[in-house]
Amino acid sequence: MTKALPDPPLDCLVANENLSFEDAQLYTAHLIHSASATVWDCCEHLQPHDRAKIHAVWHLLEMVKTVVDRTIECMHQPSHTT
Question: Which label site among 6, 21, 40, 61 has the fewest CB atoms less than 10 Å from its CB?
Answer without folding.
Answer: 6
